[in-house]
Amino acid sequence: MKMTARGSLAALMTCMAAAGAASPALADSVPVGVPLDAVETSLGVDTPRVATGVPVPIVGAPEVPRHHTGDLLPTPLLPSIPVGAELGHTGISSPVPNLLGRPETDGEGSLDAPATNLLARTGGVVVGAPLTMPDGRNFGVPNLVAPKLGVITPELTGTPSALLGLR
User: Fold this and answer.
1) Are 89 and 128 in contact (CB under 8 A)?
2) Which listed site, 23, 38, 58, 63, has its alpha carbon 20 to 30 Å from 74?
3) Mean pLDDT calculated for residue range 148-159
4) What is this structure's pTM?
C-alpha cells in the first residue's frame, strides 16, 4: 500500500471517528447562553439574562406504505415522517426599575419555561390510480375509475409551558 493511500485512509478514519464522537443524537438540546455583558459594560444599563436550549431534531422512520388488493398504488403514496425534538429549558430574567414610580420598588421580572418534548409529523399524500387492475371480463383491459387524491394533515404534539414572575 502506498504512503498516499495510507494517509488518505488515516484521514478518512479520523474524520469518521470525529463525526461519530460529535453525534447530535446523544444530546436532546444544546444549552446556549446569550452574552449581553458587553452591552451592560458599554451602555451602563442592566441587561436581561437569557439562557435557552437549541433543539436538536431527530428524524424517525417514515410510515411504511401498504398495498391493498385491487389498488395499483400503495397507501399512502407519500408517507409522513416523524420528527422529534426537546425544547430546552429557557430562562429569562430582567431588572424592572421603579415598578410603582419609586426607586425602592425595584424588582426583577422572569420567564421560566421548562424543557418539553415536541413531536411533529409531516403531511402525506394518498393517491388512487385512475385505472383498476386488469379485468378478465374486459379481455384484460383495465377499467377507468375516478382518481382519488387525499392529503394527510401534518400534526404537532407537545405540552410547552411557561411561568412568568415578578419579584
Assistant:
1) no
2) 58
3) 90
4) 0.58
